[in-house]
């Protein structure tokens, strides 16, 4: 049974930090690129960051470059999103996504809420 379980969301003040985690199970983690997406109220879902296996260069949305860092631990089947200097416009539900490198197979987590507000 495939599972992507996000954690680490919450309420934080502007300028603060959060670290999201996504624990994966039920598939071969190393054969998937891992991504974080987000959906803000009234907006389309957008790609925040994507990482292939260690050694590859992560990709970031322009709006988060220099503030967010994606990483993965293949030994723990976990992907992380370190979010610093958070802004109110970062408020959204953040989703973990796994996309197979070669086949049309992908999985979504259920999401975790991040709210940036004073």
Summarize the structure.
This protein is mostly beta strands.
Topology:
Blueprint: E1 3-7, E2 10-12, E3 18-25, E4 32-39, E5 46-51, E6 59-60, E7 68-73, E8 78-83, E9 92-100, E10 106-108, E11 112-116
Report on this structure.
By secondary structure, this protein is mainly β. 0% of the residues lie in helices and 52% in strands. The chain is globular and about 40 Å long. The model has no long low-confidence stretch (mean pLDDT 96).
Structural class: mainly beta
* Secondary-structure element string: EEEEEEEEEEE
Mean pLDDT: 96
Q: What oligomeric state do these chains adopt? A: single chain
β-strand percent reads: over 45%
Helix segment tally: 0
Label the overall shape. Answer: globular
Global Rg = 14 Å
Model regions low in confidence, pLDDT < 50 over at least 5 residues: none
- Ends apart, CA distance between termini: 40 Å
Number of strands: 11
Q: Give a short account of the largest sheet.
A: 7 strands, mixed
Percent helix range: under 10%
